[in-house]
Design a protein that fits this description.
Radius of gyration: 23 Å
CATH topology of the largest domain: FAD/NAD(P)-binding domain
CATH class of the largest domain: Alpha Beta
Oligomer: single chain
CATH superfamily of the largest domain: FAD/NAD(P)-binding domain
Number of helices: 13
Length: about 500
């Protein structure tokens, strides 16, 4: 089978892949590249999810790219607006013409003899197989499975006479007007769905096993909108981005240093929203500290408005089973429903679920150590993008894309074709911790045993800290004791 060769293959045409391509075009202009996208359109998350109210839970001045200003008035943006932004960015930079849609990467094998990745792709629209070869592989395929979301086993599910829907597979013809709806879950998706659907349903219940921290903020950043009127666009955007990054880092540090104080503050805000008679202790007081899991953002207090209106309510309880007419709780209570939405999370996968091998030997990533949170011990010429769980994803995606370009240019300068993170002998038994530490979200716990490990010192760490990452990734030297450069060809 004939193979196409490119200097760089980027896997995924979502927010990370488009950003990586932009950096590559600017900083490595002589390099050929292709973006392999398994779906029929670019956009990743923002094209896949189509449920009511779909929006960002980070402000677009930090979720947006460093190089492409966000121009809309709303900083907490809806999904279609974000998708429009990504399409515009790709089109304006000439990136769109490099995207091969319906090209799902199934496996990739590194050949040291050829200093080359052999990437096997399934053309999902025809079922044909194609091979792409490259020297550098950039994995920008996100962290969750596009095949379907996570849904626990519910006893009696088959008995329910209504419709059961997962947000990742939302049917566009679903009619919920005047219906009774139960949304199972307490994460960002559930808290988006409930206020968005509440206007049209008879009643909607958010059924949660345990509470999540919730914070409200305006969907418009008045400072950003004011600066855009008086300053050049890029300067205004840069100032707003700096402001928001600084605020994100400050609030995260405070939550870690003074968790009880921050917890009291957050719950106090909810009491003001819902009044003294609402049972905040049961429904909005988590058992864990702030930022042990991601905080849920509620723009313009829309969730609290829906609860105050009487069209929405929260029930904190455990499910016993599904019944013909709804859900039976272990407390003995019955929740009637015409539609049940299982907003129960994502199924995480490693590197988009592709099989990766080096010299024909399949890589078990759980046996590797992460290099700066983006490469893997013993795996040459591959960089993967994994953003922040405690800040905007794109902040880290930008840093990783910058590093990839620096690494490619350095290898050209010194005349080498292979770069491999290697553990030294005295590091093979170093103490380790999970790839994402101090984060107890269920979707992450379910996959930690398949992810690489962190070591106890740099560069074998994934700090999830923008300030430290800027120092380690953006300003750190390319050449260090952990990287082995070679020219096997």
């Amino acid at each position: 089978m004939d193979a196409e060769y490119f200097d760089v293959v980027i896997v995924g045409a979502g927010i990370s892949g488009i950003g990586s391509a932009h950096h590559l075009q600017k900083k490595c202009p002589g390099k050929s590249y292709v973006i392999l996208e398994g779906r029929a359109a670019l956009g990743g998350t923002w094209d896949l999810f189509r449920y009511p109210g779909i929006r960002s839970d980070s402000d677009m001045h930090t979720l947006g790219y460093s190089f492409e200003p966000w121009r809309e008035a709303k900083a907490i943006a809806d999904g279609p607006s974000i998708l429009k932004y990504l399409n515009r960015t790709a089109a304006d930079a000439g990136i769109s013409q490099h995207i091969r849609e319906n090209h799902l990467v199934k496996k990739a094998d590194w050949s040291s003899k050829d200093a080359c990745w052999n990437v096997t792709v399934e053309k999902t629209d025809s079922g044909e197989t194609a091979i792409f070869r490259c020297n550098m592989l950039l994995m920008c395929s996100g962290y969750y499975s596009y095949k379907g979301g996570h849904t626990p086993e519910f006893a009696g599910r088959e008995q329910f006479k209504g419709e059961i829907v997962h947000p990742q597979e939302w049917p566009q013809d679903l009619d919920y007007r005047g219906k009774k709806v139960v949304v199972i879950g307490s994460g960002a998706t559930a808290m988006t769905l409930v206020p968005a659907m509440s206007r049209d349903v008879e009643h909607i219940v958010m059924l949660q096993r345990s509470p999540t921290y919730v914070v409200s903020m305006p969907d418009k950043d008045w400072i950003a909108n004011f600066l855009r009127k008086i300053l050049p666009e890029k300067i205004a955007y840069g100032i707003t981005r700096w402001k928001n990054v600084t605020y994100q880092q400050f609030t995260y540090r405070q939550a870690r240093k003074n968790p009880d104080k921050v917890k009291k503050f957050l719950i106090g805000l909810i009491r003001k929203e819902l009044g003294p008679d609402y049972d905040v202790e049961t429904h909005f007081t988590p058992s864990y500290n702030p930022w042990d899991q991601r905080l849920c953002l509620v723009p313009n207090s829309d969730l609290f408005s829906a609860i105050r209106s009487g069209k929405a309510s929260i029930v904190t309880a455990k499910i016993d089973r599904f019944t013909e007419t709804g859900i039976a709780l272990t407390s003995g209570e019955q929740l009637d429903a015409d539609i049940i939405v299982t907003a129960t999370g994502l199924d995480l996968v490693v590197l988009g679920g592709a099989e990766m091998s080096v010299g024909g030997k399949i890589v078990d990533f759980s046996k590797t150590f992460t290099y700066k949170g983006m490469m893997y011990s013993g795996v040459p010429n591959m960089i993967s993008t994994f953003g922040y769980v405690n800040a905007s994803w794109t902040l880290r995606a930008d840093l990783i894309a910058e590093y990839a370009c620096r690494l490619i240019n350095h290898m050209d300068t010194v005349g080498v074709r292979q770069c491999t993170p290697r553990l030294r002998d005295d590091e093979r038994n170093m103490p380790s911790k999970p790839y994402i530490a101090d984060f107890s979200a269920g979707y992450m716990r379910r996959v930690l045993d398949r992810l690489p490990r962190q070591g106890d010192h740099e560069p074998w760490t994934n700090p999830q800290n923008y300030k430290r990452d800027k120092r380690m990734i953006r300003r750190g030297e390319i050449v260090d004791a952990a990287l082995e450069f070679s020219h096997p060809v």
